[in-house]
Amino acid sequence: MNSAQNNPAIRVLGIETSCDETAISLIEVDGATRKVRVLGNTVHSQIDQHVPHGGVFPMLAKREHQTNLVPVLQKTLAQAGYKPAASAVTALPAEAEAVLAREPELLALMRPFIVEMPRPDIDFISVTVGPGLEPALWVGINFARALGIVWNIPVVPCNHMEGHIVTGLIKPDAGSTTAFSGAMAKFPALSLLISGGHTQIVLMEKIGSYKIAGDTRDDAIGECFDKVARMLGLAYPGGPKISKLAAEARGQNIQSPEPLPRPMIDSGDLDFSFSGLKTAVLYLTKRLAEKSASLDAPNDTIRKGICREVEDAVTDVVVAKMRAAIERFGVESIIVGGGVIANTHIRQALERLAEECSIGIFLPQVDHSTDNGLMIALAGYFNRKSAVPASTALKAAGTMPIGPRAF
Ligand code: KG4
Ligand code: ZN
Q1: How many CB atoms lie within 10 A of CB 140?
Q2: Which of 151, 203, 258, 315 is the most buried (most CB within 10 A)?
Q3: Is the entire prediction scored with pTM above 0.90?
Q4: Angle at 70 between CA 80 and CA 9, to 5 degrees
Q5: pLDDT at residue 217 above 90?
Q6: Ligand 1 pocket check: which of 195, 200, 308 to mutate, most ligand atoms within 8 Å of Cβ?
């Protein structure tokens, strides 16, 4: 603990490797004011490596995390003011060597690193243990444990989706990019999780208490964006590209050649399905190709119109389900998380919905929407009571529901 005695500040190092971002953040939470200072924050995206595969290739992600983790940590620590210097540790302890035995490339980078970097002032390390790609998760977990062993600090296992939720609960202080204050959400709340792997409506009594009230029956929203983008000849990840072309279509008053379905919008429950939307786009593009309306040229009018309609369809469904959930549970706030909430159109639609329903809305900053280490550092802070010694065997969990079904 590194400051005032009664309300010590807590410093957390958050490590995220569940998918294709190698991300580490170092935060300090003031014990009295709960203000969060981001001392270092680095996200290394592997997108360029995965583009040729049209999506994330798990074993490639694992290898990339192995080579990226030490440089990403070095950069994060440098941002926080830590410089290489002689360390009290002269060699990687045997226990840490054993933890990294299955990550030889990471092990090779770790050996010199721990000798060249003195132990930073950190209270614990938090790390994503699930859900995500298991080979990718294991690298982050073993790295966190090895660092914890070397520096003699505990590790807090975190759920990636809880990281997305709590990131909506900090607001930047005016004029600052590194200082944040806790945003006071009133509970009960509904969390909407929209990412590459998830589309869920989660009922929250408080931070840490989650029940899944709605879920997707097939594709997640981000997955739907990515697959549709591929059909339209747009590179992975498709979400940002669809969103850009849809905005251009609106600006130029371009419509889709045909309307697309809003799957399950009237199903009467809070579940989602997006595979039908994806298939509808597939058939539409086939029909258009037969009529030789080519989709080859970049940014062509038809493609823009389809992007707009896909974004509208997804937005309509999300807003309708959230409206039904707000009415059903009588919640005071909605908290949104996951990469898809980087989408301006969906952000604005949800903000309008919250205003109409007179409830609070908590959105992450756009650049904190997709995967990052800050979200895991924050989740670690909220879960600090779950800290375990770094020697504890932690497991990666590809599937890791944030809570039970509400009904
Ligand atoms: O949360 P995230 O970074 O990773 C997962 O946990 O899955 O979410 C990634 C997803 C991808 O499917 C990506 O296409 C989507 O978020 N995404 C977007 C936008 N930016 C990222 N979708 C729509 N509009 C965006 N601007
Ligand atoms: Zn995510």
Answers
A1: 25
A2: 203
A3: yes
A4: 35
A5: yes
A6: 195
